[in-house]
Design brief:
Order of helices and strands: HEHEEEHEEEEEEHEHHHEEHHEE
Radius of gyration: 21 Å
Number of strands: 15
Oligomer: single chain
Number of helices: 9
CATH topology of the largest domain: Methyltransferase, Cobalt-precorrin-4 Transmethylase, Domain 2
Helix content: 25-40%
Largest sheet: 4 strands, mixed
Length: 281
């Protein structure tokens, strides 16, 4: 794979082009969206912490992968006006803002802070992963988005119950290994000839036919105008597993004979200590 594109495929790293595309997608969302909040300059660390709790919980409630706190966009019009907020320069006491926020969230939830300049304006996106195991609290209190407001989660027990129950439906194989890529990227990352050979299905003679079949078998999923590659797809059919950062760093390569399960051997597979087994007939 082209080394210059490596960062594009890592969940924790987005290029300026990726961020610009993400910002544009978020701007097109309806204003009452409960898993995205737009701000201009509010840099109060306590407010940010409450938003991270509320957005993580709301993303879970609505079945979204992430919640977003976006700086530099007017909330009412969604116009891009830029921000004076530079989180990389902010501190709470002697701690950097990002580190302080991480220590105040429970359970620990993955979030990223992206800062970049575009068209002479500065923008910031805080992206927080949807909680999976339990509601996320900030300084001991959990929040949820109700319309455009942050509210204590315990005031909305019906939403809290749904968040707790979400974890029962969590399936590792359906989670995404790589997100927001083009159909061309999909075909460069997935060994689709090997996939069609494995399922004993004729290889379509066009890109659309290949993509549709990969979608049908949950190897990939639609993501707006792009696609996500699922963990299932990456584990079984990656051309280069090292391109999938979130899987390769926890995986152990292990060669095994696929004749034992009635399939022709074609490539190395993966064993992951905390990964459920996936068998395809």
């Amino acid at each position: 794979m082209n080394k210059k594109k490596d960062s594009y495929y890592k969940k924790s790293t987005l290029t300026k082009i990726d961020l610009g595309a993400l910002l544009k997608d978020l701007q097109t969302l309806q204003q009452e969206c409960e898993w995205v909040e737009f701000k201009v300059n509010n840099s109060n660390p306590f407010d940010i912490g409450k938003y991270l709790s509320a957005l993580s919980n709301s993303a879970c409630y609505h079945g979204e992968k992430y919640g977003y706190l976006v700086y530099g966009i007017e909330n009412e019009t969604h116009h891009a006006i830029g921000t004076l907020f530079y989180p990389s320069k902010e501190k709470k006491g002697n701690q950097e803002l990002e580190n302080w926020l991480a220590t105040q969230l429970n359970p620990k939830v993955d979030f990223n802070i992206f800062e970049w300049d575009m068209n002479g304006l500065h923008f910031v996106i805080l992206r927080v992963e949807a909680t999976k195991n339990s509601p996320v609290s900030f300084k001991g209190e959990s929040f949820i988005r109700i319309g455009t407001y942050n509210k204590p989660l315990d005031e909305h027990p019906e939403r809290e119950r749904k968040i707790w129950n979400r974890d029962n439906n969590y399936i590792f194989e359906r989670e995404n290994a790589i997100e927001g890529i083009t159909d061309i990227d999909v075909l460069s990352l997935i060994d689709y000839p090997g996939y069609f050979d494995m399922i004993k299905f004729p290889l379509p003679d066009n890109r659309k036919g290949i993509i549709e079949r990969l979608l049908q078998d949950k190897i990939i999923q639609r993501n707006g105008n792009g696609f996500d590659i699922t963990n299932l797809g990456a584990i079984l059919f990656a051309r280069d597993i090292d391109a999938f950062d979130t899987i390769s760093r926890k995986a152990i390569r292990w060669s095994f004979t696929m004749e034992r399960i009635g399939l022709k051997p074609r490539r190395n597979s993966l064993v992951k200590e905390d990964m459920p087994w996936v068998l395809m007939a």
